[in-house]
Amino acid sequence: QVQLVESGGGLVQAGGSLRLSCSASGSTFSRYAMSWFRQAPGKEREFVSGINMSGFTTYYAESVKGRFTISRDNAKNTVYLQMNSLKPEDTAVYYCAASSSSSRIYTGTQLSDVGSWGQGTQVTVSA
Hints:
The strands form 2 sheets. Strands 2, 4, 5, 6, 9, 10 and 11 form a 7-stranded mixed beta sheet that branches. This protein has a 4-stranded antiparallel beta sheet with strand order 1-3-8-7, with no helix packed on it. It has strands at residues 3-7, 10-13, 18-25, 32-39, 46-51, 58-60, 68-73, 78-83, 92-100, 114-117, 121-126. Helix content is 0%, strand content 51%. By secondary structure, it is mainly β. The relative contact order is 0.32. The chain has no helices and 11 strands. A hairpin with a 6-residue loop joins strand 4 (32-39) and strand 5.
């Protein structure tokens, strides 16, 4: 089981940027598809972005496509989420997630496939 710790959340004005980081330990990081989910108050947790084991394949929710970029550094056991042009509707707790898969191109899009979660980091975007 991999342990995940997020950092980088905070308060930012609309149009601003934040970079989230997620550090992994306890297992072979490069064997996991990594993804970011978010959960706003009163709403269900939703997929934001995912990246496959090697980092060559990524996937984004329509709501963040063109504004967010996911990347990973397997040498540093870290996955990142660069968030630009932030909107108030991006306000949520952001969670890092690790998923095991037999497919090397899987990008961790399914909540039901997640085996490990981070503790979450709050992102607040003011209007």
